[in-house]
Amino acid sequence: MTSHSTLLSRVENGIAWVTLNRPEQRNALDIPTLKALINLLDEHDADPTVRVLVLTGSGKGFCAGADVAEWADAESRGILETYGWTETAHTLMNRLHGFSKPTIAAINGIAVGAGMDLSLTCDFRLAAQSARFKAGYTSLAYSPDAGASWHLPRLIGAEQAKRLLFLDEIWSADRALATGLVSEICADDQLLGSAAELAARLANGPTFAFIQTKVLIRDGAQRSLAEQLEAEQAAGLLCGRSHDGAEALKAAVEKRTPQFIGR
């Protein structure tokens, strides 16, 4: 177990567990937490023993978004537009979105503003029954600033995205599931167990192929079909030359379950 004052992290059986750890502030994101999380993501992405990452929050909330107290202090000092929260948050969102290995958000309690946006950058979102989602921007006469306007239309469609953003409704876990904002709902006391089960399945899989697939999906929206087919061919060659590719073929011939190592 490693820790920062506002983060907890451990790696077990190929799974990196990262927990936002400011429960009194509902895990709100101040600049030190943002920077610590960026550094931690870089460490886990470079660590070959990490094959999956799970992000969750301590206490009763996943993440309440930006730290309002920090914003208020910056406002009182006349530096709200220059003190760097938005730029640092954007770096974090890009890091997590570009994380090469599969990522899971285990959403316990509230996910508001940048906290909701943080979950949107993950590959999979599992929600506790008590989870609640709120964009939080327009109620403050503000527009999205941490990726919601990019992720939401792609995940739930433009109209539902506009409803969530314009009306700033609070969505229950059931509503989030119905719209496709999350892929699974769990009882509160089963959330981490369900996340662990999914993470284990991913960690035991051909994670090298998962990485290539993740890049194909992420970059494919910017390509024509012909360009995407070329990219798929190149990625397929890399997979075929990998240790896992050779192991999969050998296991198929020997009629046994393959043992993947992520390379």
From TrEMBL:
Q: Which InterPro entries did the record assign?
A: ClpP/crotonase-like_dom_sf, Enoyl-CoA_hyd/isom_CS, Enoyl-CoA_hydra/iso, Enoyl-CoA_hydra_C
Is the keyword Transport in the record? Answer: no
As one GO molecular function, the record gives: lyase activity
Which Gene3D superfamilies does the UniProt entry name for this protein?
2-enoyl-CoA Hydratase, Chain A, domain 1 (3.90.226.10), Lyase 2-enoyl-coa Hydratase, Chain A, domain 2 (1.10.12.10)
Please state the span of the N-terminal signal peptide per the UniProt entry.
none
What does the record list as coiled-coil region(s)?
A: none
Known PROSITE patterns for this protein? ENOYL_COA_HYDRATASE
* Transport in keyword set: no
Record-level GO BP terms: fatty acid beta-oxidation
Q: Which domain of life is it from?
A: Bacteria
Keywords attached to this Swiss-Prot or TrEMBL record, sorted alphabetically, are: Lyase
Q: Which family does it belong to?
A: Belongs to the enoyl-CoA hydratase/isomerase family.
Q: What is this protein called?
A: Enoyl-CoA hydratase
- Give the organism, scientific name: Pseudomonas frederiksbergensis
